[in-house]
Specification:
about 180 residues; alpha+beta; SH3 type barrels; 7 strands; about 40% helix
């Protein structure tokens, strides 16, 4: 039994090492509006530099939700995985900024999210209801209720400070230690 536990522990360490090695050499881009390159794997660590959206980073290693990276100008440090992506974001000088927070501010920093969809999912959501489903929804009043609920959600506004406070207090994302 003791031998099996040792073998399992060695296998787990080997898997973690392979994940770290596989990440090395990978290219990532900053997708968040604000990302700090940290000296250590901690939000409370000193900030080496601020990273702009679209900045290209070379991965040196990956450990516990943090990438150790090197910037184009040679600075190294750690960046939280939720701030970067394997896909280069579209960056233009005319990017919309929702200074008041709002829905744009809330969703704007989620470019590094691991939530993915494919074209088929998107097409289904845009396509709408079948004639039968539409008739049922109109009969039960669902379209009006859904439209009102969506309008209510879209009218809500949340500031960057409120989001930051929520993440800190809940120990979520880069604040989880």
């Amino acid at each position: 039994m003791k031998r099996q536990i040792q073998v399992m522990l060695y296998a787990a360490v080997l898997c973690l090492a392979m994940v770290s090695i596989a990440a090395a050499g990978q290219t990532l881009w900053v997708t968040s509006e604000s990302a700090d390159l940290k000296a250590e794997r901690s939000i409370s660590s000193n900030t080496v530099t601020e990273l702009d959206r679209g900045a290209e980073l070379s991965v040196l290693s990956y450990e516990s939700r943090w990438y150790q990276v090197k910037t184009k100008n040679g600075k190294t440090g750690w960046v939280y995985r939720g701030k970067v992506s394997e896909t280069q974001p579209e960056v233009s000088g005319s990017e919309e900024k929702d200074e008041g927070g709002g829905i744009g501010g809330l969703l704007g920093g989620l470019g590094g999210s691991s939530v993915e969809t494919d074209a088929a999912d998107s097409a289904r959501s845009i396509r709408g209801l079948s004639p039968e489903a539409r008739a049922y929804a109109e009969k039960t009043g669902t379209p009006k209720q859904s439209r009102e609920a969506l309008d209510n959600v879209l009218s809500l506004s949340i500031s960057e400070n409120e989001i930051e406070s929520f993440l800190k207090n809940g120990h979520i994302g880069e604040y989880a230690e």
